[in-house]
Amino acid sequence: MSETILQASNIIRSFPVAGADPFIAVNNVSLEIPKGSLAILRGRSGSGKTTLLNMLGALDQPTSGSILFMGEDITRWQESKREKLRREKIGFVFQSVSLIPMMTAFENVDFALRMAGVKDGRKERVEECLKMVGLGGRMHHMPQEMSGGEQQRVAIARAVAHRPGIIFADEPTAELDSTTAINVVTLFKEMVEKEQVTIVMTTHDTSLMGAGDVVYELEDGKLI
Q1: How much is the pLDDT for 98?
Q2: Stretch 73-95: mean pLDDT, rounded?
Q3: pLDDT single digits (tens) 133-171
Q4: Are 22 and 181 in contact (CB under 8 A)?
Q5: Residue 86's closest CA among 117, 132, 64, 63?
Q6: 109 and 127 in contact (C-beta within 8 Å)?
Q7: According to the model, what pLDDT value does residue 96 have?
Q8: In 3D, which of 98, 190, 104 has the Cα closest to residue 146?
Q9: Model's pTM, two decimal places?
Q10: Is 224 part of any domain?
Q11: Is residue 56 part of a domain?
C-alpha cells in the first residue's frame, strides 16, 4: 500500500454572511493523497476545489476537521510554523502564473530557492529545473518574451526547485490551449517520476482526468 503524504478528515470551511446563515464552501470532506502521485481535484467553478486546495496547502485554515501532512496535524500549528512549511516543504503553481515580471526565468526560479533558504548549488539547480521543463535555451528571457505555456513551465520549475514534498497547482491549465494543457499535465507526470514529488492539481477539464493517479470530484463543496 502506498504511503499517505496528506490526509484530510471531515474538513468544513464556512464563511460568515451578514444577516444569513454561514456559507459552507467545503462540506465535510475527507480524502487521502498517496505519496508520489498526481492527484486531481475536479469540479466546476464554485464547487469548492480551490478553497479545499488552499487548506490542504496550509494557506487557509478549516473551520473544523483535521489535515495531516506526513502524519502531523498542521491545523493545530501556529502560523509561523505553517509559513515555514509552505516555504520549505511545499510548492505552488497558480493559474495566473505569478512570475516576477522584472526577473528572467532563471532569476524567478533562483528567487524561490533563496526564499526557501537554499544557499549552496543554486545555479546548478536552477539550470537543472529549467532544462527539465524544456526551457534550457530560454532561461535568460523575461516573462513577457515567453508564451503562456512557457511561463507556466517556468512556474513549475520554480515550484519544484527547492525539492518540496508536495506541489499544489490551482487550475494550472485553465488559460492554456488544449495541446499545451496536455503538455503541462504530461510534464507533471514526468516530475512525479523524476523528482519523487506529489502533485495535487485542480481542474474543471474532463479531458485531463485520465492523467490522475487519484481523482476526487467536488460539487457544491462535497465529494461525489
Answers
A1: 81
A2: 92
A3: 899 999 999 999 999 889 988 999 999 999 999 999 998
A4: no
A5: 117
A6: no
A7: 74
A8: 104
A9: 0.91
A10: no
A11: yes
Q: Which domain holds residue 49?
A: 4-217
9 in any annotated domain: yes
Q: What is the CATH number of the domain that holds 122?
A: 3.40.50.300
In a domain, 148, yes or no: yes
Note the pLDDT of residue 210.
86
Neighbours of 125 (CB within 10 A): 19
Are 156 and 192 within 8 A, CB to CB?
Answer: no
**Residue 97, CB-side half-sphere exposure with 13 Å CA sphere:** 21
Structural domains of the chain, count = 1
Q: Do you know the residue count of the chain?
A: 224
What average pLDDT is seen over the chain?
92
Helices and strands per DSSP (H, E), number in the chain: 6, 10
| 30, 222 Cβ separation under 8 angstroms | no
Q: How far is it, in rounded angstroms, from Cα 176 to Cα 91?
A: 21
Q: What average pLDDT does the segment 98-111 reach?
A: 94
